[in-house]
Amino acid sequence: MTAPAPRPHAHPFVPYTPPRLPPAEGLRRGQELFEHLDGRRSVRFFSSDPVPREAIELAVRTANTAPSGAHQQPWTFVAVADPDLKHRIRLAAEAEERAFYGREDIPQWHGALSRLETDANKEFLDVVPWIVVAFAQKYRVTDTGKQKHYYVNESVGIACGMFITALHTMGLATLTHTPNPMGFLTKLLERPSSERPYILFPVGYPADDCEVPELTRKPLEEALLWR
């Protein structure tokens, strides 16, 4: 068979030839991954046991493999272990949460959260060994000015999903905490105006007496349609 003619490129390209798995092996791996991730839960009760810095590095390395619009990788992860800074984050987050739970104009939102039994108390932010905050980069400042980023929400969301997957694979737990508004994180973590806080992740091992709400996931027939 004659090899295909090389395609002309204006930029560097390299061959991509991942191994093609037999269908049965691919399905087996897919089933294992599903069963692994189906056991993941968001946690609000954490142990203070230490988590090695290398685990955070690996999780962010994994997030860095995510696809992104125009390969601009518009994310920054800030890892916090300093107890004083974690406490200041807690106080600021709780202030925003008290305002949220005190609002009387969003009863449906409060009702949707009721089965999770959440409130303004975020004690876990003092307990966890790490707080990792994902920031979304709206643009990048270069020597020639501002470089706008595209598909920022989609790109950072995918990266955060892979970050969560990596943590779960290492036996760690987290929570997608999004106090609203989150501008206090920009100030406390000294980030530039080109970035905005996206998700605050407490990271640690579940507490020995950890509990989670009894929930069921959406059935496949609701999540997948065939045409």
UniProtKB/TrEMBL annotation:
InterPro entries: Nitroreductase, Nitroreductase-like, Nitroreductase/BluB. Residues 1-22 are annotated as: Disordered. The keyword ATP-binding does not apply. Residues 38-205 form the Nitroreductase domain. Keywords: Flavoprotein, FMN, Oxidoreductase. One of its GO terms (molecular function) is oxidoreductase activity. SUPFAM superfamilies: FMN-dependent nitroreductase-like (SSF55469). PANTHER family: IODOTYROSINE DEIODINASE 1, NADPH NITROREDUCTASE. This is Nitroreductase.
